[in-house]
Every structure is written in C-alpha cells, then in structure tokens.
Amino acid sequence: MPFEMNEPSQLLTIRRFRDLPEALLAKGSLESAGIECLLGDDNVVRLDWFISNLIGGVKLQVKPEDAAVATEILDQPIPEEFDVEGSGAYRQPRCPHCQSLDVSFEELDKPVAYVSAYIGVPLPVHRRDWKCHSCGREWENTNDQEGSSA
C-alpha cells in the first residue's frame, strides 16, 4: 500500500542526510519495521548532489504519531557481530583509535573529486581508507579491518 498524505505539513522530519545512500538505508530500516515514511528533497539531491547542504539535505519524514518509534529504531546501536547465512558470523570493523563501530570505507578521494568536478573535469581519484565518524580518524585498509568471520 503506497504512502499517501494529503497535507505534506502533516509529516515530521526526524533526520536529515547529506548523502542519498544513507537516507535510503534509514528509510529501508523504517519500512522493514512497518513504519511508512518519505524522503523529502531526494530527487533534488539526485539531480545535483552539490546542493545537498544548501537545501538542508535529504529529509526523512514520518507521521507525527510514528516519530518516537522511528527515532528509537534509527538510534539503535550498530551490532558488533551478526550472522550471515552461508558464511557464519561477521564481525564489524572498528576504529583502531577509539574502538567505535561507526566507521565507513572511503574509496573516493572526495576533496580531489569535488574540486575537479567544480572546474568541470571530474577526476575519480581512488584511495582505500577507513574513516571513523566518532573521532574523525582515518587509516589505510588492511584485510583484518574488512570484517572477518569468527
């Protein structure tokens, strides 16, 4: 059943995301829990991701009565380990400095990519680094940080 709202003002923005993939993951988490939600300004960001910060990012919106449960779902901690069918246990990568699980793999050198795209010659310069969103540390990729089977 599609999500229909007669009045967009009836929706409550519970999160804002600079990047569309993060917004889509959050939306999927809520939808899998049975909470209807919408992404605001997602098509604008799809068309020109440079203006995401200017417009306030992609907005995750829910009905006001679902806001508390939706926020609780999105605030759940990252699991340290989970079972992958056919592979066994998967251990999440951690920051070697602060031990946070809030890390991501950065394969694109964003400063070079942004500047080169701004001048009209996009250069996808690659690197293979991890970044911690808790302490801001970056470190090079090694096989033991990619997550391993226990």
Describe this structure in words.
Helix content is 24%, strand content 26%. The chain has 150 residues and is an alpha+beta fold. It folds into two domains: 8-74, no CATH class; 81-145, no CATH class. Residues 144-150 have low confidence and may be disordered.
Keywords:
single chain, 150 residues, 2 domains, 24% helix, disordered C terminus
Rg calculated over all Cα atoms: 18 Å
Number of helices: 4
How many domains? 2
Described by the principal axes of the CA atoms, the overall outline is flat
Name the beta content range.
25-35%
Low-confidence stretches are 144-150
Round the mean pLDDT to the nearest integer and report it: 82
Describe the main β-sheet briefly.
3 strands, antiparallel
Helical proportion? 10-25%
Along the chain, the helix and strand elements come as EHEHEHEEEHEE
Helix- and strand-based class?
Answer: alpha+beta
- Spatial arrangement of strands, main beta sheet: 1-3-2
Q: N- to C-terminal separation?
A: 40 Å
